[in-house]
Design the sequence.
């Protein structure tokens, strides 16, 4: 992981952030998400200096959104200079996300949130 990814991961891992389980380097279809809260259908991307292909990022985001995910992107500079602001934005997105429900069988999350 890059230094910005490590800094953000330290805040997100282990259900430390709003009690939500985030995973890192999550394969979703043909893509790998930097961080993902599957229960909230939220993907967090930290884009470095080599992330300059906005058309490709747009196609990727569109595909992920078509799968039911919300995608948030932050630059390395955002994370390194204002991690509290980044976390505030993520917290706001989590508050706005639909909350997971139990499956009709009462065993874990419904398929809508997996």
Sequence:
């Amino acid at each position: 992981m890059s230094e910005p990814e490590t800094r953000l991961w330290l805040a997100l891992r282990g259900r430390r952030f709003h009690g939500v389980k985030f995973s890192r380097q999550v394969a979703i279809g043909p893509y790998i998400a930097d961080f993902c809260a599957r229960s909230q259908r939220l993907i967090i991307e930290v884009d470095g200096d080599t992330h300059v292909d906005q058309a490709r990022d747009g196609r990727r985001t569109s595909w992920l959104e078509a799968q039911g995910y919300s995608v948030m992107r932050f630059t390395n500079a955002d994370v390194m200079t204002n991690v509290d602001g980044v976390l505030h934005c993520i917290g706001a997105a989590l508050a706005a996300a639909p909350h997971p429900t139990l499956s009709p069988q009462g065993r874990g999350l419904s398929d809508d949130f997996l």
Observations:
- The first strand starts at residue 23 and ends at 28.
- The beta strands are 23-28, 31-37, 42-47, 70-75.
- The chain has one domain: 3-113.
- The longest helix spans residues 83-96.
